[in-house]
Write a structure and sequence with these properties.
alpha/beta, TIM Barrel, 2 domains, 13 helices, 37% helix, globular, Metal-dep_hydrolase_composite, zinc, Amidohydro-rel, guanine deaminase activity, Metallo-dependent hydrolase
């Protein structure tokens, strides 16, 4: 069934600007693509569209905004989110991550419960697309893929590849075994959604070498070949933490950047998380190779002694997106990722100003919204129109309400003292939502035109 919305649309057209479209009609066709968009004033009544479309009239101080894209999340680690963050990265992986992932691989019922709950939490928080790290278990990752397809949200699912491990019971025992398992998962994941029309296939397999310390060079080389053969995306961690970097340098004699480069995995459909220790020269190379970076500012604060140099990466032409990095990050809310990204950039700017105040290092709140929508969509290869309200774009959107229409008080944590219904939504209203809003302000979420949370009442 087609959808028709009347109300305010808000979107990031460029990294530095927000467009507010007051009192517009937006129509979504039965396949979930935007088919019409125009100002309502003096226009055709939405009830005159043919057929029996669902009509959603947005009250004052309510707007549609594109859904968020989370570019780095460890699905199995949702099991213990908010635990062990006092540890350095390599110890944390040994004491928490590997154990949790192995546990889910051995317990399909638990995996199903964790992944279904994860999907629910994501839609509550406005996330419509997620790039996921799974486990090494082929069938467990199919449970993850099915949970996201059933929940109606986009999931790019990575079956972990790792033929080296500090936990002997949690590893693939050779490069050949690991590649065969990755190939099997890709085939089964594609088969899971093959009966559906292309626009309804919400889950996709992703080549996922965990990181250099758990992967032999032969494995990385073979995974690069597999990514080309199967035309699938690649994801991993890169230049993340001091203890990881020291380990790679000691074991391999070069950086993980050089290893990924010489094995063919720095490619135009790849997303690398963290990248806090990359030089300008290395980031320029990522830009040339069209590699995207997933900035995870909260987990960087815990596991990296360096902040991500976001302003420099963006100015060097790297496509930067944002991730929560659950469970290295303790919040599944992309709004917190945006806030932390801005905060870190402001601290960096203040420190840099003591030496040279000629160049700002700030990533501001508007730019963070762009990174969380259009930046993420670009990294996932969803198309130039994704993350916008444009004819032809897939309708992945959240409905945000700032003021309760009955009490006229600000909703959730928001307080307003000048909310005359005849007044328009302003940039200041949106900034306040960005700073203080939460799931209480989100009253609807759609992916490919389908309402996935909660069910919105027809009018």
């Amino acid at each position: 069934m087609a959808l028709i919305f009347r109300g305010t649309l808000v979107q990031c057209i460029t990294p530095r600007s927000i467009e507010i479209l007051e009192d517009h009609i937006l129509r979504v066709n039965e396949d979930g693509f935007i088919s019409d968009i125009y100002p309502y004033a003096g226009g055709e009544s939405p009830k005159h569209f043919p057929g029996d479309p669902e009509i959603i009239q947005m009250p004052p101080f309510t707007f549609l905004f594109p859904g968020f894209c989370d570019l780095h999340l460890h699905a199995a680690q949702f099991l213990y989110m908010g635990s062990g963050l006092h540890l350095p990265l390599m110890r944390w992986l040994d004491e928490y991550a590997y154990k949790a992932e192995e546990r889910l691989d051995k317990d399909p019922a638990l995996a199903r419960a964790v992944y279904c709950r994860l999907a629910q939490r994501l839609v509550e928080n406005g996330t419509t697309s997620t790039l996921l790290f799974g486990t090494i278990g082929e069938e467990t990752n199919l449970i993850l893929a099915k949970a996201f397809q059933d929940a109606g949200i986009r999931g790019f699912v990575g079956k972990l590849s790792m033929d080296i491990s500090s936990r002997p019971s949690y590893t693939e025992h050779s490069a050949a075994e690991s590649v065969a398992a990755a190939k099997g998962f890709i085939k089964k994941c594609k088969a899971l959604v093959a009966p559906l029309p292309a626009h309804r296939r919400l889950v996709h397999p992703v080549i996922t070498p965990r990181f250099v310390p758990t992967c032999s060079e032969p494995l990385l080389q073979d995974l690069a070949v597999l990514a080309s053969e199967e035309c699938v995306r690649v994801q991993s961690h890169l230049a993340e933490a001091r203890d990881m970097i020291d380990y790679v340098s000691k074991e391999y004699g070069v950086s993980d950047f050089e290893i990924f480069k010489r094995t063919g995995l720095l490619r135009d459909n790849a997303v690398y998380a963290h990248c806090t220790y990359l030089t300008d020269l290395q980031m320029s190379e990522l830009s040339r190779r069209k590699v995207s970076i997933a900035n995870c500012p909260l987990s960087n604060c815990y596991f990296s002694s360096e902040p991500f140099r976001g302003r420099e990466a963006i100015d060097l032409g790297v496509n930067v997106a944002l991730g929560t990095d659950v469970a290295g990050g303790y919040s599944i809310d992309m709004m917190n990722s945006m806030r932390h990204a801005v905060t870190v950039s402001k601290i960096r700017d203040g420190q840099a100003a003591e030496e040279d105040s000629s160049k700002s290092l700030v990533v501001d709140w508007i730019e963070s919204l762009y990174l969380a929508t259009r930046g993420g969509a670009a990294a996932l290869g969803l198309g130039d129109l994704h993350g916008t309200f444009t004819v032809g774009a897939a309708f992945d959107a959240q409905m945000v309400q700032l003021v309760d229409p009955e009490s006229h008080f600000g909703k959730g944590a928001l307080d307003f003292f000048d909310t005359n219904p005849s007044k328009a939504i302003t940039l200041e209203h949106i900034e306040k939502w960005w700073c203080m809003g939460d799931e209480k302000n989100r009253i609807g979420l759609w992916v490919q035109g389908r309402n996935v949370w909660p069910q919105v009442t027809k009018t």
